[in-house]
């Protein structure tokens, strides 16, 4: 069985996000003169704010079970390096997972997702993959899941997560639950977010990238919640040592802003709700156009991404010299003037004609336009957005042979 080998692509680097919330900017500026460095793993104020955030989501947490770092990538890298053994990822999965496993010296193996969602492995396929890895002399130790998923934008149903989690725990795996987009569900009252750490408290590490729902993408910050029992304490100590070794502490002004955001005052809650609404409206508009062109796409439910399969258009695409996701990415990115990464960057085979679409580029190129779209009653109808969507439709129609 072969481990994942695709390199981390620059095309999936963080995009320009929403305008900076004024209240966050004020707190960052007020702390700019701070000369005392933030402790490795996060200071007391930041870790306490993270505990409050999780407590409001029915996950009581002690500060000694929390670590913070300058972004989700350093935290996941330290986690994979500290946990030991091989890593299991979904197919598809976020483009940055597999490269971090390789950087940590851990072979990574992909497990297919079920038809209804991404982010969580098919339970039967998970057990089969564990068996095969062990038969080949491997040591599967960690499973990374993303219940509110990048790249598919779906939210895993509770029953599916429970089956996959039961299989993982039975096989002795530590589950890393990336919950970055849980607070950007497009219809939060209609979409249940199942919480792995509630189901298996001794086996789940929760990872949240704050540069998702809470902070600007240019201010990298992330927090992780470790189990209070079982292997949690020992794993946390190893991760803390790794973070200290690579100086992954937060800059003090970002730590102050992150603490404010995690306390979820009204401006932060309002911004998260507005982001969920605009992402949902734009993702829905993009999906409508994909379906009209003949593509397949799961309904997006959270975050700014959706994932499409253009396999039904294989014959039309081949007539235009497009036979794999690499060529599809090149052609559509050139047509739209912005990156549209192919499925090969997310663990899918290149001959699968899949793409991840991102809605933030539809918001516009400057903060004034993005602010206007963010609070518009009908975001897809804003003239600038409508023009972007019309260009997207035209590019798809040309590729599909229309």
From TrEMBL:
<dbReference type="InterPro" id="IPR004839">
    <property type="entry name" value="Aminotransferase_I/II_large"/>
</dbReference>
<dbReference type="Pfam" id="PF00155">
    <property type="entry name" value="Aminotran_1_2"/>
</dbReference>
<keyword id="KW-0032">Aminotransferase</keyword>
<dbReference type="InterPro" id="IPR015421">
    <property type="entry name" value="PyrdxlP-dep_Trfase_major"/>
</dbReference>
<keyword id="KW-0808">Transferase</keyword>
<keyword id="KW-0663">Pyridoxal phosphate</keyword>
<comment type="similarity">
    <text>Belongs to the class-I pyridoxal-phosphate-dependent aminotransferase family.</text>
</comment>
<dbReference type="GO" id="GO:0008483">
    <property type="term" value="F:transaminase activity"/>
</dbReference>
<dbReference type="InterPro" id="IPR050596">
    <property type="entry name" value="AspAT/PAT-like"/>
</dbReference>
<protein>
    <submittedName>
        <fullName>Aminotransferase class I/II-fold pyridoxal phosphate-dependent enzyme</fullName>
    </submittedName>
</protein>
<feature type="domain" description="Aminotransferase class I/classII large">
    <location>
        <begin position="39"/>
        <end position="317"/>
    </location>
</feature>
<dbReference type="InterPro" id="IPR015424">
    <property type="entry name" value="PyrdxlP-dep_Trfase"/>
</dbReference>
